[in-house]
Design goal:
The protein has 569 residues and is α+β, with helices and mostly antiparallel strands. The protein has 21 helices and twelve strands. The longest helix has 22 residues.
Length: 569
């Protein structure tokens, strides 16, 4: 079964040779296993050390570089008794004579240009930001930058003529608007600080100061952030913060009057001017804009505009006639031309005690209610001989028709833009000062005492007894608003006082359909010259806010500029 092996030494090369003599049985076993058999009866199995010494890196002399015959033999895997994957044969490299079949391309549109390699590459995030944003705008050639040689020369001459007195208070309180649409708020905050108006509330920490994000009275701040503000909203907001406002639309003043106002305002130290104009007339980008005036050159007719959008344009000198023309284009939001404001410090306190929640109510519905619903109801009751024969009955119908009697509310004392202060355990000095310092407590206590005085003056007003009778004669109003609460026993009196302030400030068109005798009686009670200064100030503020909100919509409920009709009131 096994082959017999004989070992012998080849004397010529000193190699150990194994000669195999296969028996017939062994050859039979090889055939069953399909193993290859050698063509020769002998083969070499190992080399001696003398042969190994000849395997060096140096090619021996007389050596042939021809391939060894074993390299041309069949691969080892082909002699195995089981299947095996074929060996990998690398593809031959392409030659210069090889031609490839061109790929079929889709037809290109007419006018198509192949992109350059630089354009075809994807831009980095930083390049995308730079391609979609701007760093300022180039000032048109018809305007002179304030810091240029021409601008400096003009300003020096304005100082010599005395028409740059307002510049110093404005430049010391210059405010760049914090939002792209906050030009009106930024201009107003700058003027308020220049006139040294105490806002009566904290800005941050222990400091009372004006910033454009603190101003909200006659329009929601979110609306201003999205669309900006109108001419009337600026005037209303300025009055709400204690300024005396003279608003002049461009179609109501002559060019000579505007130039004369420029001379007087720029020569004053306690009066300022804010101009509302269209940038397009000055060859600038954009449309409506607010900015204060810093100086005026009477001889060369040049006005210095302190642009609050400093990120877009610098301050510049502009021809006054061109500025006057820039106020005339129609504002798409209001359908009216723009204009300018002459602002000075008023006697009213900047922090109002009452407020209207402009976002809480549906003002288009209220406009229809004030202009159509309530007057028509009062007219029908009068014609039918109903119970609208007294002021109490008229007030009952008006208050019952409102979605909420508390249309106006009181500002809580201690209004603080910085939010709630930190806990007393905080180590920050500003937090301890904001929580425990005397001025902060005095401010809150003073505000609370003025609220009590305002409510007391409203209770003493001649309309108050009629308002109380209106609530008591209506079971719905009585149960909803005249029930004392354990937390606030004075709530019914506050509600009656606020309702009285509302009826004093309501537009006169609301009472247009009542009887003449009641209308005269009501006009005497609503005469603002008979009101106390504190009550008169709050009534005027609420009246202007109501008029502004109601005039923003037509009788049909749409905005005036969308409807195309005249204002509602």
């Amino acid at each position: 079964m096994f082959s017999r092996r004989a070992l012998s030494v080849d004397p010529t090369c000193r190699r150990l040779v194994a000669r195999t003599t296969d028996s017939p049985a062994a050859n039979s076993a090889h055939r069953r296993r399909k193993l290859p058999t050698t063509s020769s009866s002998s083969f070499r199995v190992v080399c001696t050390s003398s042969c190994a010494r000849q395997l060096t890196t140096t090619t021996p002399k007389k050596a042939s570089h021809a391939p060894h015959p074993a390299h041309n033999a069949a691969p080892f895997c082909s002699s195995l008794p089981y299947s095996h994957v074929n060996t990998f044969t690398p593809p031959s490299p392409p030659t210069s004579n090889t031609t490839s079949t061109p790929q079929q391309r889709l037809p290109r549109p007419k006018g198509y240009q192949s992109p350059s390699p630089a354009v075809s590459k994807a831009n980095s995030p930083a390049e995308d930001v730079l391609s979609k944003t701007f760093y300022r705008r180039e000032l048109p050639s018809n305007l002179h930058s304030f810091t240029s040689d021409a601008g400096r020369k003009l300003f020096k001459e304005c100082l010599q003529t005395g028409n740059a007195e307002i510049y110093f208070s404005l430049s010391g309180n210059f405010t760049m608007q914090s939002e792209p649409a906050y030009c009106g708020l930024g201009s107003l905050a700058m003027v308020l600080n220049a006139l040294a108006v105490d806002p009566g509330r904290r800005w941050k920490g222990v400091w009372r100061w004006y910033s454009d994000d603190m101003l909200e009275c006659c329009a929601p701040r979110e609306q201003i952030r999205e669309k900006g503000m109108t001419f009337r909203e600026f005037a209303c907001l300025a009055r709400c913060n204690g300024l005396r406002v003279v608003a002049k639309r461009a179609d109501q003043v002559t060019r000579e009057e505007f130039l004369e106002d420029l001379k007087q305002v720029t020569a004053s130290e306690d009066t300022h001017m804010v101009v509302s104009f269209s940038r397009g007339k000055l060859n600038q980008t954009g449309d409506g804009h607010f900015s204060p005036i810093g100086a005026f050159h009477p001889e060369k007719n040049q006005a210095l505009i302190l642009d609050t959008a400093r990120f877009k344009y610098p301050s510049y000198f502009c021809d006054a006639n061109l500025l006057y023309d820039a106020m005339h284009p129609i504002d798409k939001e209001t359908g009216l031309p723009r204009g300018y404001f002459i602002l000075s410090k008023g006697q009213a306190k900047p922090l109002s005690l009452c407020k209207i929640s402009s976002e809480k109510y549906d003002w288009p519905a209220l406009t229809k209610l004030f202009t159509n619903g309530i007057p028509q109801t009062l007219s029908l009751i009068k014609d039918a001989g109903g119970d609208a024969d007294s002021l109490a009955a008229v007030f009952r119908h008006i208050l019952s028709s409102l979605p909420d009697v508390k249309l106006i509310s009181l500002r809580q004392p201690g209004v603080d833009l910085a939010g709630p202060t930190s806990s007393p355990s905080s180590n920050a000095p500003s937090n301890r000062e904001a929580t425990n310092c005397g001025p902060s407590r005095d401010l809150a206590s003073m505000h609370e005492s003025e609220i009590r005085r305002l409510l007391q003056e409203a209770i003493l007003n001649p309309l108050f007894p009629h308002v109380r009778a209106a609530f008591e004669s209506s079971p719905t109003l009585h149960s909803a608003y005249l029930t004392p609460t354990p937390t606030d026993p004075t709530a019914p009196e506050k509600t009656l006082a606020l309702a009285t302030i509302f009826l004093l400030a309501a537009p006169r068109e609301l009472y247009a359909t009542i009887s003449p005798d009641l209308f005269r009686q009501l006009a005497v009670a609503r005469d603002r010259t008979n009101l106390t200064p504190l009550l008169r100030g709050e009534v005027e503020r609420i009246s202007e806010q109501l008029e502004l909100m109601l005039n923003s919509f037509c009788k049909c409920g749409k905005r005036v500029q969308a409807c195309g009709r005249a204002s509602a009131l």
